[in-house]
Structures are given as C-alpha cells and as structure tokens.
Amino acid sequence: MWIPTEHEKYGVVLASFRGTVQHGLPLEIGDTVQILEKCEGWYRGFILKNPNVKGIFPSSYIHLKNAHVKNKGQFETVIPVEDSVITEMTSTLRDWGAMWKQLYVKNEGDLFHRLWHVMNEILDLRRQVLVGHLTHDRMRDVKQHITARLDWGNEQLCLDLVPRREFSMVDPDEISVTELYRLMEHRHRKKETPAPVSTHHLFVHMKSLMSANLGEELEVFFHIYDGRENKPLSERFFVKLNKSGLPKSPEKTERQCTLFVDLGSSDLRKDVYIVVHIIRIGRMGAGEKKNLCSVQYRRPFGCAVVSIADLLTADSKDDHLLKVYACNTESEWSQIHENIIKKANSRYNLSGSNTGLAVALQLLHGDIEQLRREYMVLFTRGVSITRKLGFSDVIMPGEMRNDLYVTLEKGEFEKGGKSVARNVEITVYVLDVDGQVLKGHVAAGAGEPGADEYHSLVLYHNNSPRWAEQIKLPIPVDMFRGSHVRFEFRHCSTKDKGEKKLFGYSFVPLMQEDGRTLPDGTHELIIHKCEENASLADCSRYLRLPFSKANLPSNNQTLKGTKESFWITSFLCSTKLTQNGDMLDLLKWRAHPERINDSLSKLKEIDGSEIVKFLQDTLDTLFGILDESSQRYGLKVFDSLVHIINLLQDSKFQHFKPVMDTYIESHFAGALSYRDLIKVLKWYVDRIVDAEHQDHIQQVLKASEYIFKYIIQSRRLFSLATGGQNEEEFRVCIHELFMSIRFFLSQESKGTSPVGQTQAVFLRAFPAVYGELLKIFTVREVAGFVRETLGSLPSVVQPDCPLDAVKLQCIAKTVESQLYINPESRCILLPVVLRVLQNHMQEQRDLVMCARILTSMLSLIKKEENGTAVNNPTEPVVSEEVELIVESLLGVLLRTILEISNRPQPAGPTMRLQFQDVTGEFVACLLALLRQMSDRHYQQLLQAFSSKDNLRDFLLQIFTVFRILIRPEMFPKDWTVMRLVTNNVIITTVLYLSEALRKNFLNDKFDFKVWDLYFYLSVIFINQPCLQLESFSPSKRKKTLEKYGDMRVMMGCEIFSMWQNLGEHKLNFIPAMIGPFLEVTLVPQPDLRNVMIPIFHDMMDWEQRRSGNFKQVEAKLIDKLDSLMSDGKGDETYRELFNSILLKKIERETWRESGISLIATVTRLMERLLDYRDCMKLGEVDGKKIGCTVSLLNFYKTELNKEEMYIRYIHKLYDLHLKAQNYTEASYTLLLYDELLEWSDRPLREFLNYPMQSEWQRKEFLHLTIVQNFDRGKCWENGIILCRELADQYESYYDYRNLSKMRMMEASLYDKIMDQQRLEPEFFRVGFYGKKFPFFLRNKEFVCRGHDYERLEAFQQRMLNEFPHAIAMQHVNQPDQTIYQADAQYLQIYAVTPIPESQDVLQRDGVPDNIKSFYKFNHIWRFRYDRPFHKGTKDKENEFKSLWVERTTLTLVQSLPGISRWFEVDKRELVEVSPLENAIEVIENKNLQLRTLITQCQSRQMQNINPLTMCLNGVIDAAVNGGLARYQEAFFVKDYIMNHPEDGEKIGRLRELMFEQAHILEYGLAVHEKFVPQDMRPLHKKLVDQFHLMKSSLGIQEFPGYVRASPVHFTNGSPRTCRNSVPNIISPDSGRGVARRSYPAVNRYSSSSLSSQASNEVSNITGQSESSDEVFNMQPSPSTSSLSSNHSASPNVTSSAPSSARGSPQMAEKHKHSRENTCLSPRERPVSAIFPNPLDPAQRVPPHQIGDATLPRSDPNLSAPDKVRATPSSWSLDSVKEGLPSFSDSVGKMLCPPIPPRPQYSAGSAKSMRSQSPVSTSRSPQKTTVPPFTPSPTECQSTSLVSNSPVLSGSYSSGISSLSRCSVSEASGTELPASDHPPYPMPPPATLPNSISSSSDEPIRRENKTPPPYSVYERNNPRRPVPLPHSLSIPPQTDPPALPPKPHQLRTGSMKLEGTSDPRVPRPRPLPRKVSQL
C-alpha cells in the first residue's frame, strides 16, 4: 500500500534506472527527485526538472537528503536543507552544463575551455565544502572563491546577476526592495569597477649577475630611491652572490626574494627608481695577482637603475636584465645612481658589454594580509620583508617597530705622514651599557641576518671618501638606554701583508640623559686618535669624551679646530621611543609642574605620530592635570583634548580611534571630568554667535562625538562610585547645553557666514552623539533632544546654502543610527524627517541624499515586518509609519521619478552614474512603499483625494511611472530578479487601482486619457522581455512560476475584465487599441491568447454597430500584423487559434459573412508573413526569399490594396535583387513604384530613404536608377525607353543640359546592344508538391529563369540546396493527389523552351543577332516541352510510323523576366503532333539549315567550308543508307494513304520537301565544289556519287518544273545579307557579293577545325530571325578522320515551343507547330528529360544553341552505323554568350522595344501580301487608347516569306542527335508559293489585319489573370516617328535566283478563333528548344 512520506521527501539518484517496470520512472545518475509516496522498497515521485511526469523507482537507488517542505499537500515544494552556496552551485552547474555544450556547437572554443576549467574548479571546491573539514576562515575563503567563479560564469554566459549577502543567495521576498536594490547595485558596481588600491608592494627576486670578468664574491644591495627628493625611500635588501654570479644560498629563497612593502600610490611615479649597488669582495685592485694579499676588501663594482613606472606597463612575469654601470672616478661612487638617473654620461660607463643583472620584478597591489591569501606560495616558501624608511601612510595601532638607520655619509682624514692618501675602512659596532658588543644587531640590509659588526667599502687612496652606505640597527627598546655605536677607522695597506691598521675612532650614544633618543639628521662626529685596539676595550674611558662637534663646549678649541671629521645621518623609526623633548616634558608633568602651561601649549606643535605613539599616556596626563587643577588648566586641557581627538580624524591616524575607544571604556578614570567638560563645551557654544573667529570653535564642535563620550563615561564612573548622586544636576546641565545648542542653531545665517559654517560642523558631528546619550537617557528622551535640536534649525533656507545639504546629511545619519531603529523613537522622529524630505523632493534638491534617507527608512520597515510575531505590538506601528510615509511622500515620490526620468542625462560619466543611481534608488523606494501597502492603505489613499481631478492626476502619474519602470533601460539587463519584483509590485498595485478606475471613471464620468494609459500600461507590461518565460531555462521558469505565477496571464485577464466593463465606451478605443491588443495576443502563451483574442470579435461587433462595417478594424489589424510578425512574433499555432476562436465567436452574428471574409484575409496574410519571416531567417539571398517577398507584395497590392505596405515590400524586394545581383529584376521591381508616380509637382513627404521632394524629382530619380540597373543587367532595350521618356520631360522643360546627357546615355545603350555580348538564359519548369512547402509554393508549378551559365544539373542542385529536405522526382508526369497531400517536399524539375512573343523582329531578315537575342529571351509568357511516345503498335523496321510527340505549352501569370526570376504557371495546354507532321518539320528544318549554310558559304561569310561539308555529308550519307526512304516507306505507301485520306495535303507537302531537299543538295554540291580545298576533294567526289545514289533511291530523274524555276528561293526575293540593295544571286558561278557586316563568334569547335563563322553566316541565306548560334549549332567532335554524320540520338526529350505570339487566329491549324520534334527511338535510349547523364555529350551542348538540335527525332537521313554516340571533346567556355540577367515577372509583359519602322513596299509582288506579326496584346492594367510608341514592324511587306524560324543543325560527328532538327518557328506572316497558282485560295485582303492579332482566348485569359502592375512599353507619351536607318531599308525587288523556288503552302487561311476547327488551317509550328535545356 502506498503511504505518503513524512520525512523522505528529497533525494539524489545514485545509479541510473531504466524504468522498465510498469509505471517506472527512468532516472539518470545525479538527478534530484521529490518523493511523494513509498511502498515496500519503492518510492513514487518525480524528477525535479520535469515535475509533470510521475512514476515509481527503487528506494535503494536514492540517497536521501534533509529537506524543508513548503505548502504541504498537493502543491508542496521541497527545499533541500543544505548550505545555500552548495544549492546554488548545484543548480548553476546544471544550467551551465546545457549551455556549455551549445558553446561547442557554436564553435566558441575559447569560452568553452575556460568554462570547462571553471566548472571543474567549482566541483573541487564543492567537494571541499561538503567534506566539512575546513576551518572557519578557510571555509569563508572557499565560499568567496566559489561565488566569484559563479558570478564570472554567469556574466560570461549572459545569465542573471545573483543578489548575495555573505556568499548566500538572498530571497527577494525576505528583504525590502530598497535593500535588494542596494545588494544588486553593490554586486554590479563590484563587477564594474574594482575599488582602487592604496597600498602597493614590490616583489624582487635576484636571479644572477652575468659578467665575463667575475671571479670574486659579490654583494648586491637593492633600495627604492626618490629621484625628486634625492633620498632613499626604503631600507636596503642585501643578497650575497658567489664567484659565478649566482646567489650563495639558493636553497634559502628568503635570501634572494624580498617584498618592498607599504609603497603608497604617490610612490608609483616615473621619478621613483629601484637602485642596485654591487660591491665586490676581494683585492684592492680588480686585476691584482692572487698571491699578493689574502685580505679581502669591499670594493665598488657597479650600479643599475630601473624606474618603477616601467613595471606598471611591463608584463608582470617578465624577467628584467638590468644594465650595470661603473663610475669613471671612484670618488664619485656615492653619486653614481644619481648620475645614471640624470644621464650624466661622462661620469659613468658600462662595466662590460655583456654585463647584466637578471632580476624578476613584479608590482603587487593590496594590503599585506590580502597578499598572504592570494600569493600563498610566495609566503610559504619564504620571502624577506624590506620596509619603508619611516612609517607607512597608515599607521596601525598594534604595529611594533624600533629601527635605527645610520648612513655612513663621508669622512675627512689627514694623510697621517704618508705620501699618498689613505684607503679608509670603517668598522661599525653597537655596544650596550656595559660596553659589550651587541651580537647580531648590525644589519647591512634585509635578506641577510644581522651581524656583530659591519665593514664599509674601501675607496682607493681617498682622504675625503664618500660612502653613502646605509645600515640598520634593530636594537630592542629596553637596550636603547646606555647603548652607543662605535666607528673604528683603519687604513688598508696594499703592501704584501695587506694589514688593516687602526688610526682612529668615533662614537655616538643612542639616548640622551633626559630620555630623548639621538635626533634624526646629520651628525658631524669627532675622530679620536687611537692606534691600539686595546685602548678601545674599556668604553667608560672614551664615553666621557665629547662625540659630536655640535655638542662641544665653546672653550674646547683643540677638538673644534681639527680637520678630521666623520659624518653620519641617523633616522629612528620607533613606535616606543621619542626624540621630542616637549612630549617628554608633558608626560613627566609631575616632575616639573611649572612647565605644564608650556607643555600644553606646545602639544599642538608636536608631530602627530609622536602623540599617537603615546596616546594612552598623553590622555592620562591630560585628565590627571584636569583632576588636580581644573580651574587653572581646564580650558587648556580641553583644547589639548580637542586637538588629539581631531588628530585621529586624519586618515593617517584614523586607525587609532579604536585605541581611544578602548581607552575610554577600559582605562579612563576621570569620574569628575564631566562637569568641567560640559562647562567648557557650553562656554564655547555660548560664544559662537558673538565670536568673530569661528575656527577654534568649529574644531571643538568637530570633536563633539568624543567629548560626549568622555562626558558620558565620566558620569557613569561617577554614578558607579557614588550610587547615582547628582543625577538631576547632570540632567539639568545637559538640558542647558542643548538649549545653548538650539539657540545657536536657530540663528539664521546669510550665505556662507561663519555661524552658518559652524552650524554645519555641528550637524555633521551631531548624529554620532545619539549612541552616547542613549547610555544614560531613555530612547524617548534622546529622540526628544534630536527632534527639538533638528526642529530648531531655520525652516526657510537660502537657495544654494551649504547648511541645507548638511541638514539633510544629518537626517540621513539619524535615520541610519541606532536611535531610529527603535520603533519608540521612530514615531517621534518620523514627522521631522518626512517634513525635511518632502521639502527637498518638492524642490528637487539634494536628491541623492533624499534617496539615501528614504532607502534606509523603508529598509527598516521591512525588517520590522519580517521580525514581527503574529501578535507583536509593533505591527500597528509599522502600518502607521507606512500610512504616514504614503501620505507625505507617495505623490512627491512619483513626481520626482517622472521629473528625473524626463530630465536629459548629464554628460560626464561620474555624473551619469550618480544620476542612474538616484533614479534606481527612488524607484526601489517606490516599489518598497507600494509593497508595504495593504488594502487599508490603498483605501485610505484613494479616499484621501478631495476631488476626481486629483484622483485622475494621481492615476495618470502612477501609470506613467509604471511605464517608466518597465523600460528595458531602467535596470541593467542581468537584473532579472529586480525586474520580477518590480513587475510583481506593479501588477498588485494595478489590481487595486483598476477598481478605482471602474468606480470613478466609467459611464457619464468616463475619462479616455486614464483608461487609455491603463490599457497601454497593461500591454507594455505583458510584452516585457523579462516576463517571456518561454525564453527562460527550465529551472529558471519553474522558480519564477512558483514564486510569482505567470503575471502575463493575470494582467491579460484584468485587461479583458476591464474591457468588458467599458460598454459603449469601447468605441473610443477602436481602432487605436487593435495594434496593442494584437501584440498581446501574439505572446506565445495559450491561456493569454484564449483570453485576449475574443476582444477582436467584440471590436468588430461594436464597429459594425457604429459604421455598418469593420474596415477600420481590418485595416489596423493588417497594418500591425506586418510590423509585429516581421519582428519575430506569432507562429502557426497562433494563426490557427486566431482563425478558430473568431470563427466560433461570429457564428451567430448577423454580419457573419463579412466577418468570415475578414478573418480569412487576415489568416492568409499571416500565412504569407510567417513564410516571409521564415525565409528571411536564411543566410544568402535565394529564390525562396525573393518568391516569398513577391507573393507578399502581390497580396498587399491585389487583395488588400495597401499602397504603403506595397511600396515598402517593393523596396525590400529591390534590395534583395541588388544583393543577389539580379539587376534586371531589380529594375522591374523599382518600376512598380515608378509606375505609381506621375510627372507632377506634388510635394512628397520623406519616406524610406527618399528625402522630402516633389513627385517629379522622385520619378526622375527612379528613372535614372532603373536605367542604371537595366544597364548593369544588359537589358539595354528597356533602358532606352526610359531614357526617351526622361528626355521628353527634359525637352518639355527646356532643360537642354540634361536632355543632352540623356540622349548620350541613350546612344551609349544602343552601342552596347551592338557591341557587347549577352548570355542566353535557360528556363526550367519547377513543381513544388507536398504540404511541407511554404504557402506561396505549395502544390504549384513555376517556370524559372536560370542564372548565367546555369544548366539543368546546376539548377537542380541549387534548388535541392535551397530545399534540403526535398525529394527530387525522377519523371515528368503530373503527380497524383497522394503527392499533393503528402507531409513532405517533392521537387519536379525539367527544362523548357521559351516561345518568343515578338515574331516580327525575329523574322525580319537583316536584323543583327545582337538585337534578336533580346527578343528571344525577354517578355516570354509561354514555354514548351515535348515528349515523344509511340501510339499503337510500334514497327520495329520503321519506328516513324507510330512516333508521336506530346507537346505541353505552359502559360505564366506574368512574363519573364519580371520582378522575380520565377513565375507561377497559369495555364497548361497539351497537344499531340502526328508522325507525318513530325516528318514535315524535320525536313523543313533541315532544308532551311542547308539553304542558310549555302548562302553563308557563297557570300564568303564562312572562313572555312567545313560546316557545309559536314551538313551535306550528314544528309546525303544518311539518305544513301535509307534516311528519306524511311519516310517514303512510312507515309507514301498505299496503306497509309488509304487509311489517312485527310493527310493527303500533308503527304504532298512532305513529297515537295523531299524534292526540294534533293534540289538544294544538288545546288549545295555545286557551291561546295567551287570552294572545297584540295585535300577534301576525295570526300566531295564521294558525296557527289552518293547523291546520285540518293536521287535514284528516291526515284528522282528530273526535278518538277516548279522546283527547277528557281534553284533556291529566298524571302523577299533576296537574301538580306547585305546592307546595300545589291542583289546576291546565288549560283555556283556568281560573283562575290558585298559582304554583310558579320559579328564574330568565338570558335566553338574542337579539333575538327570547323569554323564557327559559318554559324553566323547561315542567316544570310535564309534571313532567319534567330541568331547564328541557333541556326547552326556545332558540337565538338573527338575525331577529324570521319566527316560522316554520326547523329546518334539524344537521351533527352527536348521541348520545342511555338514561337508566335499565341497563334494568330488566321493561321492554319496545321502550322501551329512549325518546328520539328526529333524523337529518340525507344530501342536506343530511355527518355530522361529531367536527370540527364552528366557524361552524355548530348547534355553538354554549349549555351548558344537555342533550337532542338538534340531532340530525339527519328531522322531517316541517318545511316544505322552512324547512330553511334561519340565522346565530346573539350570546347572553349568562351563560346557561351553572356546571359541576360533575370527580370522580375510581376511587371508584366513588355512589348517590343523600339525598332525603326520600314516604309511600305511600293512595287513588286509585295502588294499581294502583308506580313502578319502576331505581337501579343498589352498586359498593362492601364487602359489607354494611345497605341504603343514603337511602330509595329508588321507594316513591312514582303513577298513569299519563308517561315522565318531558327534553324538548328544536328551535331556533326559528335553524337548529339540522330535526328537533327532545324526548327522553323511558327510563321508569323503569310507565306506564298512562288507560282501564281497557290494550292489554297487567298483570303480577301480585308481579313488580313494591319496590326497585332492574338489567339481568341487571349483577351479572356488575360482579363481574368492578376493584372501585371507595370509595363515598360506602355507609356502614355505619344512618340514621334523614327526615321528608318538606311542600313535597314528594304532593297528593291530583284530577279529571282537560279535555283527553283521552294514549294510553299499558304499558311494563312481565314483567321478563325481558336476552338473552331478548320481542316484547311495548318497547326502553327512551335519554336525549337535548346539541347542544353535538357
């Protein structure tokens, strides 16, 4: 049975548990679990990080821990009972763990590794804490270390700042908000600015001396030297080195390392140096022989100097190599360091080029105790301490020191009868009172232990030596009296013996008889003669002699006159001994009573350090004098006491205050002193008002704290001694004293008068007195003193009076004092404090101090409240205090916060910091106050307002302040704890105030402003980042929900409730509140959404009632949705919820239909916006981003009609295109905006990046930008039109300067058309199937314009990269419904062929290819794709009988290029081409190709004849092997003719074409014979022989008459190959015609050396409309040996597309598809139109091929053996033309760019026929009657137009296609046969349209389609006619050529609407598609 657990509540998992049992809960090792129930070895509970999943687990797997349970029962919370630092560490490490892994994923390696080390370090420290073996101090250090590490990690990971007190986390509910703010601020400041350190230490480690000429031991002395004062700052550090230059005792680190301690900040400057003196121990001369003398001397070696400032910048770990210098003259040794510092180069030099001192130097900061903790290794291994000379900046009371420093300065000696000067050495001894040498009390410096004696260095032959050697004598205090120092002088001989001979001595006593020590300074000592050591044995003999020349009696002239002297400098640093006689006189006052007056007067002149040394003795002396003779010396003693008290205020001596406190408590014995002290103090206070000089009185008042301490202690001692006598008298004295004080405080002082300053001094000291008074008086009495004293101050204070600020400081200290903490005194003092505060805050003065006072007051209230028991009497007191504060300060506090928040922030960083602190503190005070307020307080507050206006002002103020508090910049970003507390207070207050709002400001008293502010506050509250729990970590979210709940939902419910109360006043907030409420509903909180979304229904309802519709609601919703969703708000769930909730709400409304429409519109907009946002998250600009933007842009234009949003997205799309370098599309996009503007002077506001300007100026700017982009996108024809339009504007304004520029720009564009190459793009059809695609792509098909050089494989790969989860479909069939509905992404991609609209330009002969290329790939609406298939049974012998072609035509919603690189397919049309029609197309195209090549060859446009050779070979050789015969077998047999009587005409047409082909071949062979080179003659002969075989196989003996009439018939009667009108008669013997200007093409062929020039020249024969690249496409061949036509079939099905503009209605049905479809025989290769074999040369066709050269046509002109695929050879990539940049499709279809009109023919057969040019109708939505300004090329007439289609050859000997096809584009004009009797009757002229015609369904379809927003070519400007250039003029009719004309059939029957069947109308023939598109 499961029993609820009592104590087993919390545990940690010891081992992982899989949870395989029923209801088992899987556990991971380390998880923490909360236990609910237990049963026989099992527990039931949950893991704390996932409390929703409960289950059972074995109890043996759990380690139980003590825990505290909150809210026992169903919702109980368990808190482990353990050290709070451990708890925090555990939870923090868990949070870090997840984030740490993410750092690895994000590749932030540095932080990853640092965090790893810190986590390990924290775990180690955690172990130490848990073990519990640490001492208290060590535990404190460890916790400090842990919290520092935790804070560092939180800061690095951008986590929250944790408020702590004593290393433990603070619960914000347990402390006041003001205290929380202080803690946060303290942590923040600590993190920001570490406190500056005032104490510094220099660590020195002597490594070695490197020098070439060592060999003697060395002594190295370091000291710190002040270059400004020219004196040492520290004692010396002494290191001994051996002969190798290394330390003598390497094992004793304290002898090599030292710490120069107690350097002040003032010592770290550039002119403070580390000076190193090096002394060698050895012979007198450095180069002397070793055996001369065994005596060792200390001799100068060198000196090194380094500035301390250099160490501040250098790396602390660097070793320094110091240069060592030696002095040039030994006598200047004492000044060598000064010379080096001054850079006096002449006085010193380097002591060797490679001599250097290796030293480690490091500056350490902080006090010495801190260093001991931080650098434990340093202190444990040993380091000597080198002290500063004198005391440090701060003297500590316990410091013990007694060091006498003696510097051996210089000496003056006589020669002593010697010829040369002496070598003097001094030996120093310290002797005690008995004359015994003190052992170990002479120290050369720190680092080495003290010695018994000290030997100075020896300066060679110098009678006036200067040593400047400092020694330290650390003599104990008790041995000082009677001790003396003796200096013995010896001459060091350099002779053989090297003896040291004594010749004199000096001495100096350390203490004088009166107890004073040797005074500091320089002393000139007398040198007493002495040559025997024995005479110095008895000290008493010489101690009676004088020692100093200064002390000599005036009558002792003998010693005064002697020249010999010795100078020393002494300096005593002692905490026990004094050199001051006045001090000694005062301390011994009883011995000399007559000197008391003088001694008391001189006390002020004594140095402070001397006084503090003897502080207790001095105080005892003063009070002793006071007790004995108070009348006589009372005032002087009082003044001396004041001087000493004020001395301790100095920062140097402030640490002695505790010494004085201890003295007062423990040693002070003046029980009667209080009377005298009160009397003197009152005397001074009474004199204040009249005194002229206030300085001394101010000193007295400054010391009032300690004076009162003495008074109170004295009175207590007296009470103890007498049992409380004279109590009343004492109280009266104190009352009188305070009366005097109140009187002087009440004096009004003007400006900075002395009395005012004295008042300020007293007020500063006054709060310190409270604590002393409390020792005797009751709390209420003291509070009364304070209240009356503070109340006596003048209430009206002058502005800028310093007293005002001091008064406030006094109040602050009062509030922080012990007195105020007591509730009894607080109720007395509070009114005074509040009055002062209120005045200051109202006048906005001293706000920093006001904030401090208020903070302290409110902190206390919280503490009281927390400390209260249930029945505690202080509770009502607290409540009353809150009431008082609210009444006095709430209003003024709100106004203050508003004032300082709106005030501009000060400039300086310090001021700004202070400013922010004040704001934060006031805010914390407000929050603390509001948090303390109960229901009763709120009721009283609201009832206190006398009028509605006052209440309204209060509500407006508090709501505005709350809005300020919610601002992100209110607190630093990591202060989440503070923000949550703030929000909790705000929501609590708002809930109270909303009731007041409902009661007082509804119905007839409705106040819009208050309600509006209320709603805006609520919305901002809900949208705060710190309340978005979804972004929190799970643990943080759980804690927040447990403590505060989801405050957003609470506020949402309150909004809804308040909204419902509004009634008809809701209309005031429609539509203004739609945006804010929408923002709230976008917060991803389901409960909040459910509460808030119904408000929109309410708004719609009220709007419907008011205006009969809710357009305002809709407009506002749409506007706000865009901006909010762009900011990342909202999701798919929201869209569904919005839709479902509102649809449900409006079910029963009368306006249901329009409501559903609105909801549907908004939902669709959300879909698009969500797609747009998702796409924009991706990195690079891709089709998905552009497509999504286009979809959204069109939605705004067409469905929502939101012009501003539409324009915004135009510019977003424009920027995307520019980024992707889609310049053409960018131009089309910007045209959308350009179209919306007119050429008017209407002013336009500043918008996006446009300045304020007129509409004309903006349109001009747009035009220029668009032209520039069209130019960059090589779409120059479009740019020309805009140039013309702009030029017209300039011309109309007579702006000829700009007109000239525009015309030049236009001309440059024309030049670029003719001179620059353009790449021809590929087009691909892409289907997006499946529900996983974005909305704008889902289950739609598009045609996409590929990038330059992009083939199918590359495009397919790009699409798969854009949609990485998509599956590529391997077939071209339309998918079924399962694919459409699948939860996946399917891509179907294949190439399609464009069907150009502008056929008139393409069919004109003589139009250069550079111009035609534009029309072939621009303004394309339709695309075609062909798929071959067999219908019926397939004849294995002849597959052509059953080979059909399925032709799919795709029509787009907008033409390409446009505003996007892809557009959706609007309509699919599917037709089937019969085998016979297919055969006709194949042969027509081949004939056209042959004609073109022959003409090019004849006009010498081909540089070599190879292309013609190969083409002839391909046709003839194939025919011999059964090429055309296959067609004969298939279609000329009786069976076929009988079964297909309707195909009679077509069979006739096929026969004509075959005869025509034979005739052309014959003529071609004749031309070939003329131009063939010698080495190709055998091939030519072979071709001639094969041709005769072919003719006989066809049964042709003679050609029919109509064929013989003209060998080759050309359109317009002349091949338009020349720019002049001279005819080019084609015959083998014809002369060379005038060569037309040819456009060189890059060689596209390989080793077969076939000139590519041929491909350009083909058009000269046929006048074809497509470029030469399309007319003759040559594939590379691997071999030159065979010129046979190896047309092996392509594996791909290439789609041919009809080229005419949607088929003219008059066009014969059978000619609708004019291009042949070559189809692959099924037995040769499978169809794979989408995924070609990358190695297949059929796929590798260069991009210049436009036609279907590689379609799998079954061309019978190929022999079977030749259908072998050859491998491609390499070809130059230069052959690829530059592609056109893509256009955007929503601009609509552009009509043909301007082509000059041709004059109508005036003569010849031209009259009989007008060329039809099916140019497509306008797609612009603009309705205009003005015709396009470009004259229609259909005005040109021609006779017998050949179907001007692009011709494509099969690839010769390259294995591209066995069924090469020269596609003829759909005839755009009528075609008449050469004979006078056409097979079909001519239609009457009336039926022939003069202008544009289009297919019958075209207008209908286009009307229904979304109108394209813009057309470049439809402008309302009438155009002037453009004269026809001479080069394009039509040549006069000439005689026909010799070859018989090509048989034609009339292609234009009566034009009928599509859909009506006319058996005579042939189908239009489609355009070919390029091989490379497959």
* Computed CA radius of gyration, to the nearest angstrom: 55 Å
Q: Class by helix and strand content?
A: alpha+beta
- The count of strands amounts to 42
What share of residues are in beta strands?
5-15%
Please tell me about this protein's structure:
The protein has 1974 residues and is α+β, with helices and mostly antiparallel strands. The chain contains 61 helices and 42 strands. Strands 1, 2, 3, 4, 5 and 6 form a 6-stranded antiparallel beta sheet that branches. Helix 35 (1047-1062) packs parallel to helix 37 (1086-1092). The longest helix has 29 residues, at 874-902. It starts with a strand and ends in a 7-residue tail after the last strand. Mean pLDDT is 76; it is low at 867-873 and 1601-1974.
Characteristic terms for this protein:
alpha+beta; 6-stranded antiparallel β-sheet; 6-stranded antiparallel β-barrel; 42 strands; disordered C terminus
Topology:
Elements: E1 3-4, E2 10-13, E3 32-39, E4 42-47, E5 50-58, E6 62-64, E7 67-70, E8 77-80, H1 84-105, H2 109-131, H3 136-156, E9 164-165, E10 168-169, H4 177-192, E11 199-210, E12 217-226, E13 231-232, E14 237-241, E15 257-264, E16 272-282, E17 297-307, H5 309-313, E18 319-323, E19 325-327, H6 336-342, E20 348-350, E21 356-365, H7 368-374, H8 376-381, E22 384-386, E23 402-412, E24 424-431, E25 453-455, E26 466-473, E27 484-492, E28 500-509, E29 521-526, E30 528-529, H9 539-543, H10 557-561, E31 565-574, H11 581-587, H12 596-602, H13 608-613, H14 615-628, H15 630-647, H16 657-667, H17 673-687, H18 695-702, H19 704-722, H20 727-746, H21 754-765, H22 770-773, H23 779-791, H24 802-816, H25 818-821, H26 823-842, H27 847-867, H28 874-902, H29 909-932, H30 935-943, H31 948-966, H32 976-1000, H33 1008-1022, H34 1034-1044, H35 1047-1062, H36 1074-1081, H37 1086-1092, H38 1094-1107, H39 1111-1126, H40 1132-1145, H41 1152-1176, H42 1183-1200, H43 1203-1219, H44 1223-1236, E32 1243-1244, E33 1253-1254, H45 1255-1272, H46 1276-1292, H47 1296-1315, ...
Parallel strand pairs: 15-22, 36-37
Antiparallel strand pairs: 1-3, 2-3, 2-6, 3-4, 4-5, 7-8, 9-10, 11-15, 11-21, 12-13, 12-14, 12-16, 16-17, 18-21, 19-20, 23-26, 23-31, 24-25, 24-27, 27-28, 28-30, 29-31, 32-33, 34-35, 34-37, 35-40, 37-38, 38-39, 39-40, 41-42
